[in-house]
Amino acid sequence: MKQVINVPLYFHPPITTKSSRNMTRPTKDPIDKLLKIPINLTIEKETLSELLTIAYPMVVSQGAFAVMIFTDRYFMSLISPTHMAASLGGGVASFFCMSLFIGILSYANALVAQYYGKKELEKCTRVVTQGLVLCLGFVPMLLIIGYFVGSLFSMMGHTAELEVLERKYFYILIFGSGIGLIKTCFASYFAGIAKTRAVMIADTLGVAVNIPLTYALIFGVWLFPELGIEGAAYATIISSLFSLIIFMAFYFQRGHRRRYSVDQSLKFDRGILNRYIRLGVPSGIEMFLNVAAFNLFLLMFQSYGVVEAASAAIVFNWDIVSFVPMIGLNVAIISMVGRFVGENNLDRMREVMLSGFLIGLVYSSILAILFVILREPLVAVFLVDSPHSDGILHLSTFMMIGLASYVMADAIILITGGILRGAGDTRWLMWVSILLHWLMLVIQYFVIKVLGMGPKTAWFVFVVMILVTALFYAIRLRGEKWRTPEALARVMAEQ
């Protein structure tokens, strides 16, 4: 029931398959053996190693991004709590506006991987070009949306000072959003061709620029002007531009340019654009509406009071420890499954599934145990002396048990979602994910606002809905509709 942001990666040598592996659909679907027959499940070391190689740079990349967000909030807190709150509100609002477009453009990961697997390398870079075409239309739309969303800050009941700061931060981020969208195109492209270190390199260097630049522009040191919260927003845009330049350096590097026919890719391709829209738009809508549902739930939960708001913040801080690595695994799975869909190699797809579940479930089960055993010390890390400390400790430790209950479900959701997204099953993901998120929101409205039940009940409902979502995803994965020859052929069709 949380937002999933698909962010890609870089540099892994071109993948080759063993000649002994079947490149066509076998007589007996190997996925049937995995999902329907309780037999010995063998993990291929080659596939496991490849999946980890593609995934770990994404973990680093997302970790660097989390550090950037933390330091921005920390620098704002040095000015005042109001500035920190404004950066949070403006940042959430800007991501909400961009989520639809980021979701669409991120699907380049799967599209590129499918062409890569099909050995149509010249089409891989054409996906980037069509993504840039989409950006030309998305940026004006985003500016219009941003204009109207910015006017909503006055309706949230915030103080005049907070509202002014939120608006400043938000509008700067929105006006610079085109850089972020273009960056998403290139990052997704490199994920699709399994060159995952590029995103790690670009993002970590971007963060390395962002942190000192943010400090300098906020406080006016090292000959920089003192811009306060506006400085933090400008630093974000400048560092994103720096990362984009690094991506473009990789993209236009001579060897890469020749192998992937970059010079010949700068043209309109209706077939690829049709696939981008047909398969990517459901992903974008899913992300947009799920982000909305999750944030509305969070607002309702925070309405209980200070204790509940602080407890939620603490628990979701620890949730990141499980969620960020799973995002990396999700991206790697999308890339590899997409490639094997292009190859029509269901043996390798099965191996990716097995390896993904092995990594995800082992990691999440270890975390679940630690979250239960160490719940009080983990909560205490974020506690400060206040009249609310005892209440926060009590509620947070209860919620940590819930977190331990759903981390494995989260792993199932992200692994299964990666498999289905890589295979082009985006419409099913859109409808089911949106339905369950908004059903959760409706139930929470009655629990919190209508029936007046306590935060423990609301948290219990949240956990149950994540478990239900995992069950629905597992049932879909076990079924055949998404993996029939006809379904996979429709995915690859350029119309």
Number of domains: 1
Based on secondary structure, the structural category is: mainly alpha
What about the largest sheet?
Answer: none
Please, what is the average pLDDT?
A: 84
Q: Over all CA atoms, what is the radius of gyration?
A: 23 Å
How many β-strand stretches? 0
Which of globular, elongated, flat, extended, rod-shaped describes the shape?
A: globular
Show unreliable segments.
Answer: 3-40
Element-by-element helix/strand order = HHHHHHHHHHHHHHHHHH
Distance between the termini: 32 Å
**Into which percentage range does the β-strand content fall?**
under 5%
- Determine the number of helices (DSSP H or I, runs of at least 4 residues): 18
Helix percentage: over 70%
